[in-house]
């Protein structure tokens, strides 16, 4: 069984979707790493997210995280 685990992704409302988003490139690199590993090893059977998803618990942060995931 292959498990993909994300922890403490902390999407912040004031940064997401803006040109000043300091984590845009990190998320992009993470996405490409997941695609590469999935091609090599096969798609994950499960995705687990632990820790904080939203920085301040704002609904927009959760919506962004849901779309990104």
Rg, rounded, reads 13 Å
The major beta sheet can be summarized as:
2 strands, parallel
Strand line-up of the largest beta sheet = 1-2
| Low-confidence parts | none
Helices and strands, in order, run as: EHEH
Shape: globular
**End-to-end gap:** 20 Å
Query: Helical percent range?
Result: 40-55%
Number of helices: 2
Number of strands: 2
Overall average residue pLDDT: 92
How many domain modules?
A: 1
Helix/strand/pairing category: alpha+beta
Amount of beta strand: 5-15%
What report would you give on this structure?
With 69 residues, this protein is α+β, with helices and mostly antiparallel strands. It has one domain. Helices cover 41% and strands 14% of the residues. A two-stranded parallel sheet has the order 1-2. α1 (24-41) links the parallel β1 (3-7) and β2 (46-50). The longest helix is centred in the middle third of the chain and has 18 residues, at 24-41. The mean pLDDT is 92.
Short descriptors:
69 residues; alpha+beta; two-stranded parallel sheet; 14% strand; globular
